[in-house]
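Q: What structure does this chain adopt?
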Amino acid sequence: MSSFEYVIGGVAYRVVIKELGSREALVEVNGTDYRVEISSANPGALGPVRPAAVSAAMPVAPKAAAAAPAAGSVVRVQTTPVEDSGPSGRHIHSPLPGLVLEVRVKPGDSFSAGDVLVVIEAMKMENNIVAPHDGRVAEVRVKPHDEIQEGDVLIVVAG
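A:
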């Protein structure tokens, strides 16, 4: 078992990897078990697991002693976007449907790999859409309060 300590948005998380398979893992986050799908292109070479390495979290039956989250509470998740190339540059797509809460970049901004570009709420979870690499924003195609679908273009990266 591997154990990690994270602080995301000022909130501390203790993550224990209980089982690690080639396409999914069983992890414990602050005492609650989750089965997660691994979206890494090379899951066997994950090394240290980062929040961006998981694409979806499905709770496993909680332990009897685990407290349920408070009503209306929000879980924050770091999510890697889908990327492709289009005629106007590289596109960063939403990896999930949801509501845009925040856009943290504007055209002309430079960003580094791991920077949060957009925050999307989906199923009471805030998903930080992080930059997969360094780049510069050519165009932002979403704004706060937009409802988006999986695959929608969020950001066009300057070529």
